[in-house]
Amino acid sequence: MKTAVITGGTDGIGRGLAEHCLAAGYTVLVIGTNATKGKKIASLAARYHRSARTLTADGIESNFALFYLSRFLFSHGLVGSLRQAENPVVLNFGGAGLTTPIRWHDIQWETGYHGVRAMGQAGRLNDLLAVDFLDRHADSGIRYVINLPGVVATSFAGEYEYSAVTASQVEELRAIGRPVSQAVAEILPFLGPGGDRLTAVREGRRLALESNAWDLIEARRLRDLTQAVLADHDRRTS
């Protein structure tokens, strides 16, 4: 039995993928934060914009936690199960060739917080996560697909009340965004068996892996920093 585990699967592209997999006969495990939307699909968008810096209950900056750290923990945590799969693939709607600068000295935006830039940095971190994941699990047979779908007409999850500027931008994005069904159709060809270990896709087009977005040294630097963040969390909560 084929199995798909989809985070952010109660809305947007995640929901579109979940519905496709269900129709194809997969066992689908959907993870989300909105119980109402979860009930609807049984019968969250992974991006969640915040105009002001916000900490999670664990004391970690929300963009870093949701858009990067959760994916780090989730993907590495599933390695044991993925190794046993016939066609193990991690699909991450994260970076895909982004060149956003990384604030190595302040990766959780303790100073000068900017919501859009913080999300952009998190996308860049996901590119490096893909590189590090494959480096750490080189013998696993797991493939990694990182995808930037572009502007898609999802629910644009975020604060209940956006700032005036952000609200205007969200309305514009809703108007020009491509259908979820198109974004899902564009990524499906890259998920079948026989692909490369690392595949980067942007709006349905495969990217060359030649830029510094895929730098192994930076990927390992990020891994060390991430482990330091987790170790600090363990010290604070033990």
From TrEMBL:
Keywords: Oxidoreductase
Annotated SUPFAM superfamilies: NAD(P)-binding Rossmann-fold domains
Gene3D superfamilies for this protein: NAD(P)-binding Rossmann-like Domain (3.40.50.720)
Originating species: Frankia umida
InterPro entries noted in UniProt: NAD(P)-bd_dom_sf (IPR036291), SDR_fam (IPR002347), Sec_Metab_Biosynth_Oxidored (IPR052228)
Superkingdom: Bacteria
Annotated protein name in UniProt: SDR family NAD(P)-dependent oxidoreductase
